[in-house]
Amino acid sequence: MRKFSEPGRNFLSKVWKEYEPIRVDGIVVAAECKHCARNICAERKHGTSSLRKHLKRCRERKKVLRVSGQLSASIVSADGVAMGLWTFNQALARRELMRMIVLHELAFSLVEYDGFRRFVSSLNPSFKMICRKTVKEDCMKAFKEEKRILQRMFQNSKSKISLTTDLWTSNQTVGYICITAHFIDEEWKQQKRIVKFAAMETPHTGAAMFKIIVNFIREWNIEDNLFAVTLDNASNNGAMMKLLKAHLLLKKMLPGGGKLFHQRCAAHVINLICQAGLNFLGTVINMIRETVKYIRSSPSRKEKFQEIVEQHGVSCGRTQSPDVPTRWNSTYMMIDIAKEYRRVFDSLAIQDKQYTFKPSFEHWENAEYVCRLLKVFYEATNVISGTKYPTANLYFHEMWKVKPTLEQQHYEDDSEMGTTVKYMKRKFRRYWKMTWLSLCIPVILDPQFKLKYIEFRFGLEFGNEAAAMIAKIKNVFQGLFNEYLQLNDNGSDPMSQGGDDDMVVSGEDPMVDWDQHVTLTARSTNLDSTELDSFLSKVPIRRSDQFNILAWWQTNSGEYPTLSRMAAAILAAPASAVASESAFSTGKRVLSDFRSRMTATTLEALVCLQDWIRANTNTQRSFASVHDIIMDLQDIED
């Protein structure tokens, strides 16, 4: 029996199972019937007799009992055991209705459809159907409640939070910014939550973005709990990050002096590089697109194509399909599959004079060359844009695969292909120069590699320059470790915790700050030698594709308390600002016509609440990004 926490009152009567208490100043003065919502006097001096009498007369309860009796008599489990008694709860049913509408992007007006009302009534005639306005109110109420829960969780969390941002535009040119928080929870699981979807003033400058993000950080009270922000290389993002970094550094709220605060989105850079390769293949891409359209334009052409496929014995196991021009991965896949049907296209051109889109030998050679490059980028993007596992520690390895693949490409400098490859190399080198340091830090926290791997790779690749690069990495990592070392379990300044007995000095002593510094330095040196040195000196564990880095740190957090807190912060920062479903997209994020008509307040509530429901229940759909959430919704407000 649940208790309602009124001093001296136990609420042991079974009658309370069918009522919700109504309090005034913490004292229960009435009870609301769960069946008919009628309020009955329930002051302590009156006992429960009036509550019992009402239950005997309540018509809605009688309906429930009748249905419940039928259910309990007819429903059994798979092994033939009768199920327990079912009790109807109007409030719970309303919450489930709200959840269904938000989760599956259904219109608020669904509750006013005659067919839906009849269907619900056939399931349970006791349910009191509500109107669209009430459904919307329930959604907004749930959003506010879940938001408060998430805010408290962030404020009480010992782990740092990293953010990603994404920009959207409505068909009325209204701009929106989507902010997603990434963190490692208390069970050492990777988590992400959409926490803001707000309209932006025009123009979408860095200052405008800075204003929204600062207001969000203050509203959620996480200024001192931020670790990094991952975003693409747009100029307004760069301007915003300069303002935000300066703002937080001024308040001394960024770990490591903010050296790891600005993370560049890997997927964005890869998109730019891959677009260069695809632009070079513009002619052959158009030929393949037209070929696919031609073959699929009629049943007879499909049959003819299949007949030629069988004649040549082609069995690649993949069907030729058209691409989506704004998603480069689909274009890459279309070309890659088309190569398998090269002989079929040649034969089709001979047998069908209307088919005039056959790529030439040179076209195919160029396609073969570019596809070898794109394959590496395709695989890297799939890895670094995951959301169910940390990507920070995988980032370096995927970029290291890309680096030699590009560097080893040689083509005649004066050819069009040579110009394209040079452009791709230049883009990657510029990106590597900006990000190599932030790529290396998470690798040190991977027990499969540690600092030894960085020293090994850099020694082979950079020769005499490696020593200076390694020294810089060590300096940043050591500085960050020292900062975490000075944090106790609740994240407060250890100076406020007192010190050794010999630290007791007069409050007027001008050297007290020096004494504190010496004590903390000695303490840091001792802990450093026993924790950081211990971790780095041990031989890296054997690599495994099934290795779970978060599980390893959870298991070893007792041995490495400071490093484990660092790991939770560093590993939470994503390598990509967008999920895998959007990582290959080169198009703008544009709201649908339906979404563009929705108020900003309602839009934010529904986008965030749906994301939170999915996260809390592990509900999976064929899409997971905010792009798909919005583009696939029906008109909810109509």
From TrEMBL:
Subcellular location: Nucleus
Origin: domain of life: Eukaryota
Pfam families reported in the protein's UniProt record: Dimer_Tnp_hAT, hAT-like_RNase-H
Annotated HAT C-terminal dimerisation domain residues: 531-613
SMART domains the record matches: ZnF_BED
Keyword Transmembrane helix: no
Alphabetical UniProt keywords: DNA-binding, Metal-binding, Nucleus, Zinc, Zinc-finger
GO function term, MF aspect, one: protein dimerization activity
Ranges for domain hAT-like transposase RNase-H fold: 385-484
A single cellular component GO annotation: nucleus
InterPro entries per record: hAT-like_transposase_RNase-H (IPR025525), HATC_C_dom (IPR008906), RNaseH-like_sf (IPR012337), ZnF_BED_domain_contain (IPR052035), Znf_C2H2_sf (IPR036236)
Protein name stated in the entry: AC transposase
Organism: Triticum urartu
